[in-house]
């Protein structure tokens, strides 16, 4: 194991998993949101926090989301849209995790919800490759709140500087760095692998 890290912690959507809630949301909003506004919608809207921490169902969230954004779509169709935006693991993600898992402890830290988590469990060959799973809707904590990083560090029982974290949202990366983690802003598997190789945590093939 590389001496500079004990645990590699990964976000899922946009890092290991093909989830794009930005471009479809821009289209659905019919010009109400630009891409950055759509990204921030997922980070900052109060209903997102409710969904991410398991305080509301995906169906209730879908109804509130459609109403909040003034979308001409009912809750059932909105839920189906949300489900369709989660497409699958990035090609090569499972193989990369298998290689990493031979030398490192691996964990997930993901803002997630019952709808998407169930689909990931059923259809994606990923979750069994991790030693620990920290899904926001199951632990009641979400990124980038400081408390979630303290919780994960305590559960992993390692010093903060020996955790390496990979996330596609800069707010979550910044919060992890404030917690003392080694944190990397990565979008897509290529950037994740580049960061891992640059630090000696993933051998070149």
UniProtKB/TrEMBL annotation:
Coiled coil: none annotated. InterPro entries: HAD-like_sf, HAD-SF_hydro_IA, HAD_sf, PGP-like_dom2. It comes from the Bacteria. This is HAD family phosphatase. It comes from Chromobacterium rhizoryzae. The lineage of its organism: Bacteria, Pseudomonadati, Pseudomonadota, Betaproteobacteria, Neisseriales.
């Amino acid at each position: 194991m590389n001496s500079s890290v004990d645990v590699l912690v990964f976000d899922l959507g946009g890092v290991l998993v093909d989830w794009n809630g930005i471009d479809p949301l821009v289209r659905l909003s019919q010009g109400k949101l630009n891409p950055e506004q759509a990204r921030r919608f997922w980070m900052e809207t109060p209903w997102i926090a409710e969904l991410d921490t398991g305080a509301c169902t995906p169906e209730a969230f879908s109804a509130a989301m459609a109403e909040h954004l003034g979308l001409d779509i009912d809750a059932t169709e909105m839920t189906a849209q949300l489900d369709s935006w989660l497409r699958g693991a990035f090609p090569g993600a499972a193989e990369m995790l298998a290689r990493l898992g031979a030398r490192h402890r691996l964990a997930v830290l993901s803002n997630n919800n019952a709808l998407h988590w169930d689909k990931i469990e059923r259809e994606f060959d990923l979750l069994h490759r991790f030693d620990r799973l920290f899904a926001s809707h199951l632990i009641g904590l979400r990124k980038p709140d400081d408390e979630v990083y303290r919780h994960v560090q305590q559960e992993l029982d390692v010093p903060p500087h020996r955790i390496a974290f990979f996330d596609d949202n800069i707010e979550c990366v910044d919060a992890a760095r404030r917690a003392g983690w080694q944190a990397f802003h990565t979008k897509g598997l290529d950037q994740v692998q580049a960061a891992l190789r640059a630090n000696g945590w993933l051998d070149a093939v």
